[in-house]
Amino acid sequence: MLEQARAELVPTGVLRAAINMSNFLLVTGRTPEGDPDGVSPDIARALAERLGVGLKLIAFKNPGELADAALDDVWDIGNIGAVAERAKTITFTAAYAEIGATYLVPARSPLQDISEVDRTGIRIAVYERSAYGLWLSDNIRHAELIMADGLDQSFETFVEQQLDVLAGLRPRLVDDVQKLPGARLLDGQFTAVQQAIGTRPERVVGAAFLRDFVEDAKASGLVADLIEKHGVTDRLTVAPAAPVA
Predict the structure, then answer these.
(1) Are 80 and 20 in contact (CB under 8 A)?
(2) What total of structural domains would you count in the chain?
(3) What mean pLDDT do residues 69-88 have?
(4) What is the pLDDT, as a whole number, of residue 129?
(5) Which of 51, 60, 140, 219 would you label with 181, given CA atoms 20 to 30 Å apart?
(6) Helix, strand, or coil here: 1?
């Protein structure tokens, strides 16, 4: 399996790994050489080592741009949140890590529970092409989504337009709530972003190899060790093992 997986996943001889630079939990800095550093790049490094090949990290500004390049010959694997919209052009592993997404509401808000948010007249600020933004686009039926092109922009839109709700990853919202007197986070989560590894759909053996790699990385403690190494233990959690087929 290794030889065929290598042939499919590494056609140029070097594993080209696409990294979403906007996820501040998975990319926490740069190496001395200037490459992306964090849990996501280290997962790619471990995969390249397992395959016995060199690694080239390809940085993308945001997950939308990374996903848009899925059918172009610019990356072999993409470390990105797995959502249904992206699965149309990318075959994903099960998640190796999860990040909960919830809502922030201002001091004036009568909203007390996540279930109360999807109502007519409620306006939600959201980072448009984030994994949780795609989930909201598929699932919100009554509230209005006000799209923004980035995390900072969604916060600014929420404040400047005096919107009812700001959607986001809980770790980021924990910081944002400190900037707004009286604001609060709603308990629970409306979804959990599933951080996974993806590849082109036609790479069947390669995709199976990636699935096995991710399950081993979780079971062996590699993912937990990387989360601890990069100081995000209170914000990022190891995903559960995938169900046995």
Answers:
(1) yes
(2) 2
(3) 92
(4) 83
(5) 140
(6) coil
In a domain, 45, yes or no: yes
**Has residue 138 got a pLDDT over 90?**
yes
129 falls within a domain:
yes
- In three-state secondary structure terms, 238 is strand
Q: What is the pLDDT of residues 158-186, one digit of tens each?
A: 999 999 999 999 999 999 999 999 999 99
Rounded distance, CA 129 to CA 149, Å?
A: 8
**What are 26's strand-pairing partners?**
none
Its domain, for residue 121, covers 100-191
Separation of alpha carbons 79 and 43, rounded Å = 9
Q: What is the CATH number of the domain that holds 142?
A: 3.40.190.10
Q: For residue 4, what are the CA distances in angstroms to 1, 10, 70, 76, 160?
A: 5, 10, 21, 14, 53
* Amino acid in the structure at residue 110: P
Tell me, yes or no, whether 128 and 168 share the same domain: yes
Whether 69 and 106 share a structural domain: no
142 vs 162: CA distance, rounded Å: 19
Are the beta carbons of 71 and 200 closer than 8 angstroms?
A: yes
Question: Which pair of tokens denotes residue 55?
Answer: 């690694």
CA neighbor of 118 nearest in space, from 102, 104, 139, 133: 139
Closest by alpha carbon to 23, among 144, 223, 182, 172?
A: 172
Q: Higher pLDDT residue, 192 or 18?
A: 18
Give the length of the chain.
245
